[in-house]
């Protein structure tokens, strides 16, 4: 898995740079978090596959449930043009939660994940 550990404001998070295509990829992210003693993740836009966005595949639901079960706070960066249809409805609901949020830029995603108030 291609990832980077970012330390900022006395906290650290994992930035995932690899496409998430399977449940095994999600489990690998959880393992990376556990082995690096952090529960914070940012999924770069490149990590979000069409499979993830296609809710019929179930991958988004699996990932979200696993993150919740392991108490991992995650955010992702997705171009607004990719957010449509049922995925748009999911993003709307996710952005109400404290577990997973979708942003269109790294600064907002990082501020949220690190709980930095602007």
Folded structure, characterized:
A 5-stranded mixed β-sheet has the order 1-2-3-4-5, sandwiched between helices. It is of the alpha/beta class and 118 residues long. Helix 1 runs parallel beside helix 3 (59-69). Helix 4 links the parallel strand 4 (73-77) and strand 5 (100-103). The protein has 5 helices and 5 strands. The N and C termini lie far apart (32 Å). The chain has helices at 23-35, 50-53, 59-69, 85-94, 106-113; strands at 3-8, 11-16, 40-43, 73-77, 100-103. It is globular, with a radius of gyration of 13 Å.
Q: pLDDT under 50 segments (min length 5)?
A: none
Question: So how many helices?
Answer: 5
Distance between the termini: 32 Å
Q: What sort of overall outline do the alpha carbons produce when their principal axes are compared?
A: globular
Order of helices and strands: EEHEHHEHEH
On the 0 to 100 scale, the average pLDDT is 90
Largest sheet: 5 strands, mixed
Oligomerization: single chain
- Strand content of the residues, in percent? 15-25%
The count of DSSP E runs of length 2 or more, i.e. the number of strands, is 5
Q: Into which percent range does the helicity of residues fall? A: 25-40%
Question: What's the short story on this structure?
Answer:
The protein is of the alpha/beta class and 118 residues long. The chain is built from five helices and five strands, in the order ββαβααβαβα.
Entry keywords:
five-stranded mixed sheet, alpha/beta, 5 helices, 5 strands, globular, single chain, 118 residues
